[in-house]
Amino acid sequence: MLVILSNLMLYFLVDPSDIYASERDPGSKDALDFRHHNYKEMRKVRLMKSVTEECPDITHIYTIGKSYMGFKLYVMEISDNPGKHELGEPEFRYVAGMHGNEALGRELVLNLMQYLCREYKKGNQRVVRLVTETRIHLLPSMNPDGYEAAYEKGSELAGWAEGRYSFEGIDMNHNFPDLNNIMWDAQEKAEDPSKVAPETRAVISWMQDIPFVLSANLHGGELVVTYPFDCTRDWAPQEDTPTADDAFFRWLAAVYASTNLNLHKGWYA
To answer: Hey, what's the signal peptide range on this chain (predicted)?
Structure first.
């Protein structure tokens, strides 16, 4: 009894300032496929295909278009009525891999597919509620061209920007046109010189086809939550330019951040 109590006490007395404590945990208890997956492994061989075979009643794979190099942009839908929009049921999407060399978000979304499938089958009430009351769309790789370039060269030889941008050299994080800039460009020039990547156009069409109520985009390299804001014509960084939904976005970001101790406390891993 003393040994058990001592172990419990040691467990609960872990130094809260030790942000690396969880990294010394000997492995995960989840039977998920924790590794990097290239395009073929992601779609045809392992994860997406295996998840649909394991949970055919709640999953559906579709594509929203192709990358510049012709890779299909695959989406996994998870719902109790896959392939069908249900009136009053919110549509949610997770997008990852906008920067092709930021692999963590891609793998998290792929593992989320596995997790939702298996926990739904186990009867996990939280997951069952998510699947039955929400139509979830998961796009693990918005920039497959960039990922394949970075994956092929490997982290030892690639520079920090290898695979970050699209094949055309476009940073898709700043590639979604907004009405303000279109109007300002029209005033100053005869035509809009900006170029929209095919991957960006595919996501825009996707947003127009499905009435998403919420979306999140996963990036790698920083521990932060960002939310939408307006821009100014002179890009003055000190100027506050909130959107009409600023209060909601701030609340949502705070709720999300509060579930992660390191993020909530402002600690950096």
So the answer is: 1-16
Q: What is the CATH number of the domain that holds 147?
A: 3.40.630.10
Q: Is residue 192 part of a domain?
A: yes
pLDDT one-digit tens code per residue, 118-165? 999 999 999 999 999 999 999 999 999 999 888 887 766 667 788 899
Q: How many domains does the chain have?
A: 1
Q: CB-side exposure of 250: number of CA atoms within 13 Å? A: 6
DSSP state of 20: T
Under a CB-based contact definition with an 8 Å cutoff, are residues 95 and 203 in contact?
yes
DSSP code at position 269: -
How many angstroms separate the CA atoms of 101 and 124, rounded? 33
In a domain, 18, yes or no: no
Question: DSSP for 163-216?
Answer: TTS-TTS--GGG----HHHHHHHHHHSSS------HHHHHHHHHHHHS-EEEEE
Residue 126 falls within a domain, yes or no? yes
Q: Classify residue 215: in a domain, yes or no.
A: yes
